[in-house]
């Protein structure tokens, strides 16, 4: 009895995912002319998954780049924590800034006078935000000190001049060495009321941060000059604290409140920019959901393509079943057929997405030259260039999601093929 061939065949079925199953799945992927419609559906499924994965990688990378660049520029120039006075003015700002700068995790503490003014030249005029800082602190603000386009910040305190953004300089048609006129409504107090203060300043430097709102609105002047201009009488509005790690704000806030040794009001960059960064996060999540639908539609195409393939190959399936192929073998053949489309499409989308993301600025410049128009207006989008930062974790999430959808899409058609009755298939095939 042990030598019975039929029992030996029952004891030794074909190994799962054997070469036979892979060869058969490969033959089904290479359809003949009369099965061309199935091949067209498979092609569209492949293209859909490839484009969906590539688009997801590109969009998420650009959104990450936006967040990083905006965080670096907004927080980099404005500080991470803001210390304002309560009860009495910050006349002891020098000592307080010195104490705060010694806290672990604090890079520097910058006393600052801020005020609104109207800047004008012979060419134009507009509203600006004037900031008074010490020359030594000015050199430590990397966003400005490392991006000087004209002039210099050397001897900033003694120069009696101001540093302005490049876009403001273009708007007013000014350069280093020219004169800018600043007007503030809160000037000298007279018997007839408060008179506007008008004063001319030489432009000692022109900087370019790379964010249009800052480059078109910020004017920096020496701290003592700003105190005199805004009638501060030896105090400052705020002390801006810069941290080594912007995400460790809560720890630094407690240490700052203890080191202040006086009543202070402490706010941080998250509170000041909460709405802006929350909107970015919502937009990013919505874009992920919308673009995932592209992959889902492509996966549904895999289902329809495999169902048509199963119907077309019903006679072949019946013959294979009568020759001894198990239900599991038939199911695995069609699983391999459908999954191959999804996995190859995912890999191709990954390569295409990375290629475009890593060269997105060059592509934008090329398209701008080709169309003869500026496709990236920095005055509208805040940044001068398209930022992109690839997140390994997010890319892996996209790849896993696409492959999972592709595999799930093959389950029902494969199960249907495995459940096919050989007798009925041969009778009506």
Description:
With 429 residues, the protein is α+β, with helices and mostly antiparallel strands. The chain folds into two domains: 15-70 and 277-428, no CATH class; 88-262, no CATH class. The protein has helices at residues 5-11, 19-29, 36-78, 93-101, 135-138, 142-145, 156-159, 166-172, 212-215, 223-229, 249-260, 269-272, 274-312, 314-322, 327-358, 360-371, 378-381, 392-418, 422-428; strands at residues 81-85, 106-120, 125-133, 148-151, 162-165, 179-184, 189-190, 193-194, 197-207, 218-222, 238-243, 264-268. A hairpin with a 4-residue loop joins strand 2 and strand 3 (125-133). Helix 13 (274-312) runs antiparallel to helix 15, helix 13 (274-312) packs parallel to helix 18 (392-418) and helix 15 (327-358) packs antiparallel against helix 18. The longest helix is centred in the first third of the chain and has 43 residues, at 36-78. Residues 1-12 have low confidence and may be disordered.
């Amino acid at each position: 009895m042990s030598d019975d061939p039929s029992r030996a065949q029952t004891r030794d079925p074909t190994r799962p995912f054997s070469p036979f199953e892979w060869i058969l799945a490969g033959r089904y992927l290479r359809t003949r002319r009369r099965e061309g419609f199935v091949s067209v559906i498979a092609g569209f499924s492949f293209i859909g998954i490839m484009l969906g994965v590539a688009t997801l990688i590109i969009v998420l990378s650009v959104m990450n780049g936006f967040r990083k660049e905006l965080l670096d520029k907004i927080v980099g120039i404005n500080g991470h924590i803001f210390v304002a006075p309560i009860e009495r003015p910050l006349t002891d700002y020098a000592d307080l800034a010195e104490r705060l700068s010694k806290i672990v995790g604090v890079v520097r503490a910058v006393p600052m006078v801020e005020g609104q003014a109207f800047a004008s030249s012979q060419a134009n005029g507009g509203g600006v935000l004037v900031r008074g800082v010490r020359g030594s602190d000015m050199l430590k603000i990397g966003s400005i000190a490392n991006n000087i386009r004209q002039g210099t910040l050397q001897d900033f305190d003694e120069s009696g001049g101001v540093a302005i953004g490049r876009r403001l300089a273009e708007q007013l048609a000014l350069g280093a060495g020219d004169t800018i006129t600043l007007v503030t409504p809160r000037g000298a107090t007279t018997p007839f009321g408060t008179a506007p203060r008008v004063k001319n300043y030489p432009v000692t430097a022109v900087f370019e941060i790379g964010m249009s709102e800052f480059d078109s609105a910020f004017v920096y002047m020496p701290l003592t000059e700003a105190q005199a201009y805004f009638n501060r009488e030896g105090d400052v509005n705020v002390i801006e604290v810069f941290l080594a790690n912007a995400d460790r704000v809560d720890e630094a806030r407690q240490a700052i409140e203890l080191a202040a040794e006086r009543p202070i009001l402490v706010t941080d960059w998250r509170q000041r920019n909460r709405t802006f960064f929350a909107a970015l996060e919502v937009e990013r999540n919505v874009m992920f959901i919308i673009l995932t639908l592209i992959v889902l539609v492509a996966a549904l195409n895999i289902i329809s393509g495999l169902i048509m393939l199963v119907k077309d190959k019903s006679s072949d399936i019946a013959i294979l079943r009568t020759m001894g192929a198990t239900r599991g073998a038939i199911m695995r053949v069609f699983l391999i057929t459908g999954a191959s489309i999804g996995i190859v499409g995912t890999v191709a989308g990954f390569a295409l997405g990375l290629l475009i993301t890593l060269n997105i600025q060059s592509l934008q410049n090329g398209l701008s030259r080709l169309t003869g128009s500026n496709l990236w207006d920095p005055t509208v989008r805040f940044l001068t260039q398209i930022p992109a930062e690839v997140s390994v974790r997010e890319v892996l999430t996209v790849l896993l999601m696409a492959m999972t959808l592709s595999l799930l899409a093959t389950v029902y058609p494969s199960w249907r093929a495995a459940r096919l009755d050989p007798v009925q298939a041969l009778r009506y095939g």
